[in-house]
Amino acid sequence: MVIAIYSLVLAAFILWTVGNRAFMPSLPAPSFAGQPPKISVLVPLRNEEENVETLVAALKGADYPQLEFLLLNDGSEDRTNELLHAATDGDGRFTILQGTPLPDDWIGKVHACHQLQQAATGDHLLFIDADISFTPEAISQSLTLADKTGAALVTGFPAFQVPPFLSKLLVPMLHFVIHFHLPLVFANYSRYPLASAANGMWMFFEREAYMEIGGHASVKDSLVEDVHLARRLKQHGKRVILANITRSVTCRMYTNNPDVWEGFLKNSFTGIGRSSFLALFLTLFYTTFYFAPLPLAIAGIFTFRWLWCVPYLLIVLQQAFVMYVTRQQLRLAWLMPLQAGAMIAVLLTAMWKHIRKQPYSWKGRKYS
0.90 exceeded by the pTM? Predict the structure, then answer.
């Protein structure tokens, strides 16, 4: 009876996830009338030599007619600056900026984005990360969705490439958390600030609304500035759309396991408001519903209690659905218990570092 109830709860989680997905729009086919507005594409880069070639190729391939590309070298210690100049030479749409020293009270990426917007002249501002690639129509699609919905911000999570093993565990949980925990009907169809999600990899702003809320300067010390900008827009009565952009935008976030760990460590505890209570609740929740099915299934196999395997199959099915609609590798859904375990490990480690007042490290900088 206990296993049956347990399985029914997990089945209900699947139904919720499927229903919740219905409230996340995809990027539409490009469609705009009249003179197209100017769009500034703004890219901060720090030690991104591995991504310069792919990034610039994607920018050059964009089909939108009124574009300017501003790329800011944020104190890179590798060949980023040299490669940027070589890749963009002769294309008048590109401007390479050199970042100023980081003030003590700013987060590095936020300061870089602030400098970029100061130099931008577009009617819309598209902030993207250096490790993404996108289809030629992705920018036009974002403008079309913003026009159709009246959104001040269109954002979304890309399809992820996950070469390192640890990224196969942690990165898929980004889409899972959004589809499972965020009530998308409130995120996309209400002005309620707490029901907000955003992703700094792809942030398409209407410039006037961005300036009205104070831009990146208003969140200068935030490690999750994307979410805080979305909340500020809603607080000012603006609409934010979290879209499924996975058919148009891809990202290779990490190339090695240490970077995966440090990247998630930096954002996980901060992303839940540094709440130890919430961290412990999520640990209990994911241990009970998403890690425990694995040892239960193993025990069921060895004791021939096949019903004990059902919870594991249900959580795999839930993750497989999310992976299917977000264009991830379906076979990774079988790792769902390990993915939940990795997320718990990162969250508890980040909480412990916060309690001990130990800084987080990222790209040669330390943040408290």
Answer: yes
